[in-house]
Amino acid sequence: MSLYTIPFRPPCPIIACRVSSSLAVTLPSPPTATATAAALPSLTCALQCPHFETCSGCTHEFNLHRPIIVEEATDFFKSLGVSDFTFDSCRLWGWRCRAKLAVRGSSENPLIGLYHEGTHNVVDIPQCKAHHPNINAAVELLRQGIRELNIEPYDEDQGTGDLRYLQMAVTTYNTSLPAAERYRNGRVQVSLVWNSRNEKSSNSDKLNALANFLWRNGGPRSNLHLIHSVWANFQTSTNNIIFGNRWRHLLGERDFWEHVGGIDISLDPSSFGQANTRAFDNLLRKLHKYVPYGASVADLYAGAGVIGLSLAANKKCRSVKCIEINKESKPSFEKTIDRLPNSIEGSISWHNTDTSIDPLSWVVGSDVIVVDPPRKGLDASLIDALRTISSHKVKPSFKSSSSNIKEEKRPWILREKERAKEASVQVGRETALEDPQSLPQTLIYISCGWESFKKDCKALLTSKCWHLEKAHGFNFFPGTQSIEVLAVFKRSLKKKKTRKEKKKQL
């Protein structure tokens, strides 16, 4: 690892900005002796990306280790009584292990990248400094295939062409290599979003030819061995949704594995996965500290259940309920379950349902709630349930974690619960041994949307049901003003009135 320094360095940076030789950046010439430190931007952690002026992916070039928003977050949490807010940063270049890219232009000159801000004009980004280097290498290989095979990129205006989008996902899980070499040698799962209804459409020959080109030149028999697998997604819609509902595995390994939070996890290309694998691993290990051994956990907005399963394995939870609206996450959850240690004896379940519908029934009976919502924040119904949780006198009558509150009669709630029960996955013993009337003592909020988090945080605290105990920030997206937040709330318990206080009331 090489350490880059310049003559004028800001005092006490949070981390030393280190990059591997494969990710090295060329710094500008040192400033002249007459220049002052205050007059120059800090280049200690500079992006130095040739696409910065046109690409919408990154918003600032300097001090990648500490975006300006960290100061706002520090002040915000201090105003709420948390004076020890921390901010963790790790890899600053080559951190993105999952990327969705648009494909436009022509077969002779394909453009592969992101939209220019405010438009649908694609900016080609072959030398992206945020991407894992092997994503850039796989994109370049694909570009060659598009040219050689005369693959037509998608034309939005006409609705014509073959290749619409790409998803590139890097797995660094390779136990045949020393741990220090696994990240650098990550392999790329390539998902081609094809402009057709299915694999039997008229342009399917081109799809197979492109997949074979990638495998022949980047698969295990090539000199490079860059490609993990090739998938196809079929999409003909004219809206802005990237993926269609139909997926097909074409070549390579079907299962995509990664190791985070102390467990092996499986992620299908249709499942949500964190772009910054290492930062996510740091967050999970921090989260473990706030969950007691043997706790009962409800993991809401769970995706493939990575957070809940990591807690089940590391904290020996007596029960973990994972609730997720995307049914495509179920296969990944089931594969991950199969690799968990045999020593886990608690109950683990996954439920395909909408968290916003009757959220209280998923919350009661748990000691700890973990929420990891999308950027828009928590659903209003969940906020309401959490704000008023201390006033609920819940007496459910259930034999599993997906049962309803006893007197529930609303038909749409009952239908949703029945569907969730049919789509659920249960491992281990059933949860009848839990106290069905217990209410959670800890709420752990993981946020990728700072503005929505502030709003939700204030709503929770003004209810007086919760108080904020700890907060940590993580640099998931260096080069942007986005931070990931881990906030720990504790339920505020009503103090019992003393005899003197009771006499005063009388």
From TrEMBL:
The keyword Ligase does not apply. CDD domains: AdoMet_MTases (cd02440). PANTHER family: BNAA06G32370D PROTEIN, S-ADENOSYL-L-METHIONINE-DEPENDENT METHYLTRANSFERASES SUPERFAMILY PROTEIN. S-adenosyl-L-methionine binds at Q274, Y301, E324, D372. One of its GO terms (biological process) is methylation. Keywords: Methyltransferase, S-adenosyl-L-methionine, Transferase. The gene is LOC110427742. This is Uncharacterized protein LOC110427742 isoform X1. Belongs to the class I-like SAM-binding methyltransferase superfamily. RNA M5U methyltransferase family. InterPro entries: RNA_M5U_MTase (IPR053304), SAM-dependent_MTases_sf (IPR029063), Small_mtfrase_dom (IPR007848), U5_MeTrfase_fam (IPR010280). The active site is at C448 (nucleophile). One of its GO terms (molecular function) is RNA methyltransferase activity. Residues 283-374 form the Methyltransferase small domain.
